[in-house]
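Progress against Task 2.4 (sequence-to-structure conversion) is shown through the following example record, which the project officer requested during the mid-term review.
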Amino acid sequence: MMMKNKRRMGVHEKQRPCKKVIRPTLDGTSSARSDSSREPSPGALSQLSEQVVSRLCRSVVSLASFHGDTKLGECTGICIETSCPDATSFLTSRLLIPLTWPTREITENLTIEVHLPNGRTVTGWIEHPGRYVDFLIVNVKDLSVFDVARVSLDCDMQFEPYRKVAAVWRNFSSGLLGATSGVDLASLSALTSETMFSTCQINKAGIGGPLVDFDGNFVGMNCSRTRRKKTPYVRREQILQFLEYYRMVSVRAKEETDDAEEPGIESEMKQLLCSIPGGSTKFFACTGVFVKCNACSATILTSASLVRVSGDAHRIDDNLRIEVCLPNEFRVVGILNRYNLHYNVGLVDIMGYWGPREIQISRHQVTSCNKVIAVGRLFTYHNIMAAKGKLLAGKRSKLDCIELCVSTCKTTKAGIGGPLIDTGGNFLGMNFYHEEETPFLPRDVIHRLLLNLNKG
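Structure tokens generated for the chain above:
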């Protein structure tokens, strides 16, 4: 019987040479594993030095996910340095497991096989699979007894733009190493979380493989293949941020933070706001604000429009995937906790986030203010948007909720779910969108809703 992913299998339990095994795939084809030579195939590898190729041969692996005897997906991976105790970690693509596969079943019902450079096969596991968006970290029992080279993701190294790079992969069936060369198209001014491209063209086996420069330095992970003449990759800085965030590597000391230089409301809002799109294809994007923070989790208040079925105001889409872009530009997976469709309010939980500031919501009624500010955050560029205006006392919104109030702030749809604050930074309510006005749900109504949602 196939071992389940939940059990951590040691290298000595499954140290077999890659003998020929035929397994059915989902599309009806078969994959054969043979005792082929582990020498690299010709191509871009011939442009690299022997030292670089030797290190790649010892660090690049192939992985596949199985449900029983059915292969779900295969990718390339690379061994990386982490602080995970008694484990060796491999970075690979999230596409190793179909996106439609329920996250809760990954650790219990799937098997992850890792084909090592020496031809042996070991079984790995994925801890907290719901955390990942673009990539996965697969752990196997410590492989220090084998000659596996770990790649450091230390991002202090600066790369020149338009440098020559190589996309490297290892074929799961044959074990052969392959590569294509190209040019890195990354911009020095690009955001850390922004997807970058190279002109390296990869096949399906190359997904999850490393992009390296000609000195062998790790640039990023190739995250998908396209029909265009360029391949997207996840930057090493973004991967390192993830590892630091979840304490999978030692957090680097920083002499100062950007927020220390940001005065007043803008600095506080940067720590309070996040932006949220729904789905692997972005169906809807809005803003959210932290309302509850624990030692290793946080709850975000946002609009229920995030999860509504398009064209049906009374149903939510259970199949949506929620991504949250945090104030530090790091992206995590969110889980819909509770919602109220009548008031268009939703609560999204995230795990493992330390240090956010939560907004203060009291029972007090909204009082008359001379000036108010509607705040939002763009998901793609992470910019904070702020629109000044005034409260329109006594004016009812044109939306179908009599408890909504109105301000003169001019916002966009990206500001939906964002806070309305006064000039002192005090929370007044949550904004929605209308072409002629900006309706908002007052904080006393939100406070009442949160109490009811937490009860039930």
